[in-house]
Predict the structure.
Amino acid sequence: QVHLVESGGGLVQPGGSLRLSCAASGFTFSSYAMRWYRQAPGKERELVARITSVGHSTNYADSVKGRFSISRDNTKNTVYLQMNSLKTDDTAVYYCYAASFDTWGQGTQVTVSS
């Protein structure tokens, strides 16, 4: 059974940093691309970043380019989202997603506030 568990969210001041983690199980992690999404209150869920199976290619939403970085450690079955220069607009629940299995994690709350 495919299972994704996010961690690392929290409260941070504007300009601060957080690193989110998503631990995967139930499939051959190194064979599949992974994505991070987020959903702010009252807004639709949006794609934040994605990474290919071995991490050679990444893509980002325009709103986070230059501030966020997606990476993965296939030895730990984990995908990461490093978030720097955080803004209040980055406040949302962040989810990891395995598209090939249409499976979401439970989400982790990120709140950017002074």
Q: What stands out?
A: The CA atoms of residues 88 and 112 lie 5 Å apart. The chain has a mean pLDDT of 97.
